[in-house]
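User: For a reading group we're discussing how well predicted structures match intuition. Take ABC transporter substrate-binding protein. Before you show the prediction, I'll give you the sequence so everyone sees exactly what went in.
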Amino acid sequence: MTRTVRGVVVTTTAIATALALSACGTSTGGDPSADPTNFVSGGTFTMAINDDPGNLSPLTGVNLVQRALVPFGYESLAYTTEEGEMVPSMAESWEVSGTSISYTLKDGITCADGTEFTAETAANNFAYQASPDNGTFWFGSNVTEDMTASADGNVLTIESATNNPFLLESTGTVEMVCQAGLDDPDTLADTTNGTALYELTTAEAGSAYTYTKRDGYTWGPQDVTSDTEGLPDEIVARVVADEATAANLLISGELNAASVIGADRERIEAAGLDSVGTLNPIGQMLFNEREDRPTADVRVREALTLALDQDAVGELVTDGSYQPSVSLVNKTPLTCVADGPLWELPSQDVDKAAELLDEAGYEADADGDRGLTIRFLYDAGTPTHGAAAEEVQAEWNELGITTELVAEDPTGWSTDLYQTYDWDTGFIQLAPSSPVVLSLFFLGETSENGGYNFMAVENEDYNTLAEQAFQAEDSDSACDLWLEAEKELIDRVDTFPLADTVSPTWLEGVTLEMPGSIAPTTIRMLG
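Assistant: Thanks. Here is the predicted 3D structure of ABC transporter substrate-binding protein, as structure tokens, for the group to look at:
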């Protein structure tokens, strides 16, 4: 069986500077239960986002900044804590087997437009998500074409035609849209219609997006209601592209939260601000494996990685906060990560790299030039990417490789990755929460054919293991298979997770949790 993925392609730009979508829960100031006597209800919580989110639809929106805003207007059947635990949210309980899951919805759930949210509406959500014609964000990963959904009173039942050991983790995290939004999805581009504690009330493209707290909200995760002490009345997502500006606004108190990972973090630390740490695969490299690119040859990919001093590049790309990667899954709930990887990145071996390039037909001439040019992409908005890319360029130059460095903005990423395919490798990161989501990018159709595989990877060993994992009898067996599959990606150099870091989102006058992105029901304003 081959799983094909159609529809929109997930943009992988600027993971470091999007408001920390990759997460691992190291919190130094985000515990909403800490000293509640300091909580002050009301007011405005203002956060920085590094770019305009564009389309706000939770059904098809793919920009990472946009995905960080989805939880402010929409919620899911279950809530994922910072520790990766699934707890009740819209659903009060669930019963799960290998091929089905039944959710019992809480009473009294209403939509932003005032209508009742029912189990039938939830079933309609999954029917919409399961249709390949709709090309939704979750189709092919959390929701598959072989899923069906039905409602009986306040009970939603989702059935899978094949065994699925991660039915709760997948279906429980899909954001629910109210019926009017499903009936006319185009309306969701610049409005919200969900059941969340907040709803969008003002949208100023390129400037700010304001969400206002709803009255009568009683069904929140961890017993949060509209009357929970410390909740702000408004949430403002303010577009602040420059980190130095974001740092200034934090220190002055004009911002309550911002992700700052470059040199300006020293000023913020000196000011004594707390932060919530989130795992960031900032040094991950992907490769264009289309037949007209030099990186289609595994020998070239292997040579490029063997030539690198991982510690030197890692220290630069993380601004001195380098830590080795332990998984390609790096977003909460970190499914199948606990047991550690089966793979290990190879040590630097410049001589072996040279031999591989010779074998691939790139022999050095009398001047040491191999006639090999690599187009290396990095994010212009990520402060540490530029210096690390120059180090890569210098190290590859020693091997006779010409490296063309390209600092990408959002338009450039879209053009090179999904239109012209004019790239070879670079600091390009993925932020999956499970190996199932990861498989979207390596299994199935390429982006030219409507899939998520924008690298054009064809790894048959990975594909075979992934298909077995999809139908494993239980989660332990599935995780074992997924770990083997991930090793195949590393061994074939389809990706090279050179360095991870813990990126801080700094907090001023507020405490909160970030199980992926900021969870609005955990925001508590401080006095």
